[in-house]
Write a structure and sequence with these properties.
With 118 residues, the protein is α/β, with parallel strands linked by helices. The chain is built from 3 helices and 7 strands. It has a domain of 72 residues. The chain has a 5-stranded mixed beta sheet with strand order 2-3-4-1-7. A two-stranded antiparallel sheet has the order 5-6. Its EC number is 5.99.1.2.
């Protein structure tokens, strides 16, 4: 088995993404090998700590960050044949811009991402 380790921009940081901010905080308190530093990115709280000897950042989402939407011609569900929806284009809209920006920014600094959701 070949194990790859990548370092992006000289970074060696693990990012843990949880469903909620309070879950992210509990994860950091449980895993931390020392103090947990509280921080914010565009008003989105995150925690920085050391886990297994590596810098780790834990951040929580606020429900669904991206929402799937259909084009306008499908807006009246009563007039749409359900089979048409199978091949219809699905648009994405960001429901929590601050959270999306925080995750995007933090993930650029990470060499690994852990999705800690149910």
């Amino acid at each position: 088995m070949v194990r790859l380790h990548c370092v992006i921009n000289g970074s060696n940081m693990r990012l843990i993404i949880s469903e909620k901010a309070n879950t992210a905080k509990k994860v950091s308190q449980f895993l931390a090998e020392g103090p947990v530093k509280e921080g914010k990115h565009r008003s989105v709280p995150h925690q920085t700590f050391t886990w297994k000897g590596e810098e780790t950042v834990s951040v929580g989402l606020k429900g669904h960050v991206l929402n799937p939407e259909y084009p306008e011609e499908y807006s009246n569900w009563q007039k749409v044949e359900p089979r048409e929806l199978i091949d219809a284009e699905i648009l994405k809209s960001v429901s929590e811009k601050g959270v999306a920006d925080a995750v995007r920014s933090l993930s650029k600094k990470a060499d690994r991402v852990v999705i800690a959701t149910d």
